Amino acid sequence: VHLAESGGGLVQSGGSLRLSCRASGFTFGSNYMNWYRQAPGKERESVAGITSTGSSTNYADSVKGRFTISRDNAKKTVYLQMNSLKPDDTAVYYCNVRYFGRNYWGQGTQVTVSS
User: Fold this and answer.
1) Taking the CA atoms of the chain, what radius of gyration do you get in angstroms?
2) CB distance 1 to 21 below 8 Å
3) Any idea what the Cα angle at residue 20 is, between residues 17 and 22, rounded to 5°?
4) I need a surface site. Which of 5, 36, 52, 90 has the fewest CB within 10 A?
C-alpha cells in the first residue's frame, strides 16, 4: 500500500487549496478513504471520509461547509478541496486507508494558512 499526498502550500486566510492523494498497492475502488491532519503540538484528527463509490461523505464539524472530499476511482486518487481557509487549518494533512485491519498513511503535505 502506498499513499502519496500533494498540493499543500502557503495560503492567506480565506484562500483555497486542493490536496490530492494518489493510491497504489490495493483495490482503491473498494475502500473507504480518509483525510486526517495534525497541527503542531496536537493529536492527529480526522478531517473527512468518503465511501468507496463516493456516494457518502463525512466531515469534522470544524470543516463542514468549507472542505469537500471527493475521489476518482479510475485515477486511484482522493481529493480534498479546502475553501475559506483559516489559520487554525494549519497542519500536516495525511491521506489514510484502513486495509485488512491496518492503517496506512502517506507522508503528509504541509498546509500553512497565514492571517
Assistant:
1) 13
2) no
3) 170
4) 52
pLDDT at 59: 98
Query: 82-107 in b/e burial notation, b at 16+ Cβ within 10 A?
Result: beebeeebbbbbbbbbebeeeebebe
93 alpha carbon, distance to own chain's centre = 6
Instruction: Give how far the C-alpha of residue 32 lies from the chain's centroid of Cα atoms, to the nearest Å.
Output: 12
Q: What average pLDDT does this structure show over 3-12?
A: 98
Q: DSSP string covering 18-65, please?
A: EEEEEEESS-GGGS-EEEEEE-TTS--EEEEEE-TTSS-EEE-TTTTT
Each residue's pLDDT tens digit, 52-89: 999 999 999 999 999 999 999 999 999 999 999 999 99
In Å, what is the CA distance from 8 to each residue of 5, 17, 21, 95, 103?
Answer: 8, 7, 11, 12, 22
* pLDDT value of residue 78: 98
